[in-house]
């Protein structure tokens, strides 16, 4: 009898095993063939007899294939019908809601997508459903991003960041970091966006194969594009396109081609920009994406306007206008169309210029918070006002631009504060929940009059308890702040002691060598000849250089130190330095590229600026293996005047990059080899900072180190 039961159980399990094996086999097929097989399986009358997990796997696989092949519309009825006829509250159904929300998202039905995500979250309320919860949060952040609710997206993602960081599966954390980067860049917090994207990229490189990193490269390219670092942006978009071509997804290929077009446009390579844009148009036609085709036409109109090809620009704008003005949700693109129409009017007519198109663009940008575009449109309107000799309007716009830039700066500070106080926000939410619970108790007390005294006593007890907790929390928080202050002071003292220790060590070593050499001469162990005195002189020079650099750094950090700034024609100044810089690297190949305009004026202390450039070029020449290559370039970007010094191998380690500008820091690597005293780059950083600029280091594509400086252009 027992044997018979075992045989029956085995026979019952065979269809389930066969179904699972059949699904695994189908997944290995090419996409089009896989879709056909899955459709046949779902239409089979036996499908409803499959175990629930297998049914869900078939449904999700088919829906994903529809979406990936550009047919998200076909995924909707399958998912909607299955969810309508299977109203089980099982966690697995949360993944179907996630798939349905993704389909709505691709079809730009964002309201439906948001409602569907909220339904899916109701299936992910338990700790064991954290993975589903994080996937739904990620999708909701993308919906907020595409509907312009960037601050809501950032709050949502920051609130769930601790949950993702505690999760063992790093891909969920990578997704949240990426979404944070995308939303931060929309609020023009480009540097913070890049930091989150670099965190996401580090995780992605560790857990995904190279062929799956296309979106990561694309995101980094967008950040460098926003930071006006166009050569870096072009590099990452090229990497993204290479990987997209391997997967042969026309939609992704088109997006990478469009970003390459934009990078080439910003670099001034207009013909290359047109070639990439037209290639993107072909990709979007293949993907049957009318929206992206209109996006191509809009960007082509921008390029044609720069080339003064007004008829081509007008034709492209008409195509873009035909699509985007028919879509109420495309307000972002509508503002770009109005802006380009204003540019077309400007180039094709003479003053006085009409403000109609620009006012429509500005109205959209003001309503939806498109800060970067708002600044762009106001700047063009100010140009129109000047051409129309409307000086009062030009002054008013100038004040508006200053206010907007101040607001952006304040928002950046507030964002840093929000990130730092995310934990406190959790506590506030807990307090809000407690207050809501008290309100419920209060209402219940009013309804149940016969228990008024008991409920009143309970209410008083709860209030006292809460006050005690709040007082305790305040005391604890104050003590914590005091402890942080003590720790900070202790850290400062430790840094001071370490600085003195490092200086004394760097002085003691040559002094000891000098003393031993003198004693050897006195004792007759070494001859008192010219070679010995040269060695002594070399040690004295080393000491003198170290003391001078320490003195120089102290002088630069003194509150009384002032730069001797003057208006400098930067192009002419660099041309004067060209020969001197070349002589400093004569043992290497030297490339000098000065792309600045001859009329560009900056307030600079020429002697200090020369000190910075000589220091950086000398470092590259000193630490680069001969024969090597040293490159200097200067160009104007949207952020300011951009100087860059690059060299060939050897490079520095990832861990050393952030420490290069610290005092007395010297990397223990082939690049250092005991050269220098570790103060040169600290002096460079201080001088650049006094000029109001920024300096940073990164790995160079040439194989060595890349040091970049940006000075803002102040009108």
Give an overview of the whole structure.
It is a single chain. The longest helix is centred in the last third of the chain and has 71 residues. The protein has 26 helices and seven strands. By secondary structure, the chain is an alpha+beta fold. It has a five-stranded mixed beta sheet with strand order 2-4-5-7-6. Helix 9 packs parallel to helix 11. 71% of the residues lie in helices and 6% in strands. It is globular and about 105 Å long. The protein starts with a helix and ends with a strand. The N terminus is likely disordered. It comes from Pseudoalteromonas fenneropenaei. It catalyses: ATP + protein L-histidine = ADP + protein N-phospho-L-histidine. Its EC number is 2.7.13.3. Keywords: ATP-binding, Kinase, Membrane, Nucleotide-binding, Phosphoprotein, Signal, TPR repeat, Transferase, Transmembrane, Transmembrane helix, Two-component regulatory system.
Summarize the model shown:
It contains 26 helices and 7 strands.
Keywords:
single chain, 715 residues, alpha+beta, five-stranded mixed β-sheet, two-stranded antiparallel ribbon, 7 strands, 71% helix
How much helicity do the residues have? over 70%
Strand line-up across the major sheet: 2-4-5-7-6
Approximate strand percentage: 5-15%
Number of helices: 26
Q: Roughly what is the average pLDDT, rounded to an integer? A: 81
* Unreliably modeled segments: 1-18
Overall body shape: globular
How many β strands by DSSP?
7
Ends: how far apart? 95 Å
Question: What structural category do the secondary elements indicate?
Answer: alpha+beta
């Amino acid at each position: 009898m027992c044997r018979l039961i075992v045989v029956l159980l085995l026979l019952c399990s065979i269809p389930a095993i066969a179904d699972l094996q059949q699904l695994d086999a189908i997944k290995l097929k090419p996409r089009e063939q896989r879709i056909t097989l899955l459709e046949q399986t779902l239409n089979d009358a036996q499908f409803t007899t499959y175990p629930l997990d297998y049914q869900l796997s078939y449904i999700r696989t088919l829906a994903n294939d529809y979406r990936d092949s550009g047919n998200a519309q076909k995924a909707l009825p399958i998912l909607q019908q299955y969810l309508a006829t299977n109203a089980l509250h099982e966690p697995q159904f949360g993944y179907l809601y996630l798939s349905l929300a993704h389909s709505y998202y691709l079809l730009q039905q964002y309201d439906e997508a948001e409602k569907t995500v909220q339904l899916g979250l109701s299936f992910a309320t338990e700790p064991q459903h954290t993975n589903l919860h994080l996937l739904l949060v990620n999708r909701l952040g993308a919906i907020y991003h595409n509907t312009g609710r960037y601050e809501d997206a950032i709050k949502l993602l920051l609130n769930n960041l601790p949950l993702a960081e505690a999760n063992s599966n790093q891909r969920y954390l990578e997704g949240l970091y990426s979404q944070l980067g995308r939303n931060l860049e929309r609020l023009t917090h480009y540097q913070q966006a890049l930091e989150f994207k670099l965190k996401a990229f580090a995780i992605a490189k560790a857990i995904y194969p190279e062929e799956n990193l296309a979106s990561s490269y694309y995101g980094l390219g967008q950040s460098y594009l926003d930071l006006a670092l166009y050569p870096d942006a072009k590099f990452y978009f090229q990497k993204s396109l290479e990987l997209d071509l391997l997967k042969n997804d026309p939609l992704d290929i088109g997006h990478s081609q469009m970003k390459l077009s934009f990078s080439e446009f910003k670099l001034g390579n207009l013909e290359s920009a047109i070639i990439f844009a037209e290639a993107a148009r072909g990709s979007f036609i293949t993907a049957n994406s009318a929206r992206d085709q209109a996006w191509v036409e809009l960007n082509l109109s921008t390029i044609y306007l720069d080339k003064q090809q007004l008829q081509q620009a007008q034709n492209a704008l008409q195509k873009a206008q035909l699509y985007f003005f028919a879509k109420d949700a495309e307000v972002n693109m509508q503002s770009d169309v109005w802006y380009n129409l204003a540019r077309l009017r400007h180039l094709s007519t003479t003053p006085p210029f009409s403000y109609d198109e620009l006012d429509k663009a500005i109205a959209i940008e003001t309503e939806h918070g498109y800060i970067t575009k708002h600044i762009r449109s106001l700047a063009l309107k100010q140009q129109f006002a000047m051409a129309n000799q409307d000086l009062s309007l030009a002054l008013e716009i100038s004040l508006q631009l200053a206010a907007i830039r101040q607001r952006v700066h304040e928002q950046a500070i507030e964002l840093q504060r929000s990130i730092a106080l995310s934990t406190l926000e959790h506590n506030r939410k807990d307090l809000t929940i407690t207050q809501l619970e008290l309100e419920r108790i209060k209402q219940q007390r009013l309804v149940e009059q016969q228990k008024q005294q008991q409920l009143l006593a309970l209410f008083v007890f709860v209030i006292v308890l809460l006050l005690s907790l709040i007082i305790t929390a305040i005391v604890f928080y104050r003590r914590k702040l005091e402890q942080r202050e003590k720790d900070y002071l202790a850290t400062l003292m430790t840094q001071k002691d370490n600085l003195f220790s490092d200086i004394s060590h760097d002085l003691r070593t040559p002094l000891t060598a000098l003393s031993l050499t003198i004693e050897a001469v006195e004792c007759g162990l070494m001859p008192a000849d010219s070679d010995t005195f040269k060695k002594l002189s070399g040690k004295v020079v080393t000491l003198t250089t170290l003391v001078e650099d320490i003195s120089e750094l102290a002088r630069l950090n003194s509150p009384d130190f002032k730069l001797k700034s003057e208006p400098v024609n930067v192009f002419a100044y660099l041309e004067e330095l060209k020969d001197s810089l070349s002589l400093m690297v004569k043992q290497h190949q030297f490339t000098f590229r000065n792309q600045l305009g001859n009329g560009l004026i900056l307030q600079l202390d020429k002697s200090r600026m020369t000190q910075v450039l000589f220091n950086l070029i000398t470092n590259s020449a000193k630490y680069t293996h001969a024969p090597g290559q040293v490159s200097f370039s200067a160009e104007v970007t949207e952020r300011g005047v951009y100087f860059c010094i690059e060299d060939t191998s050897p490079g520095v380690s990832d861990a050393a990059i952030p420490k290069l500008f610290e005092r007395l820091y010297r990397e223990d690597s082939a690049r250092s080899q005991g050269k220098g005293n570790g103060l040169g780059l600290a002096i460079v950083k201080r001088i650049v900072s006094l000029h109001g600029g920024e300096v940073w280091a990164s790995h160079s594509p040439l194989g060595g180190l890349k040091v970049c400086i940006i000075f803002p252009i102040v009108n």
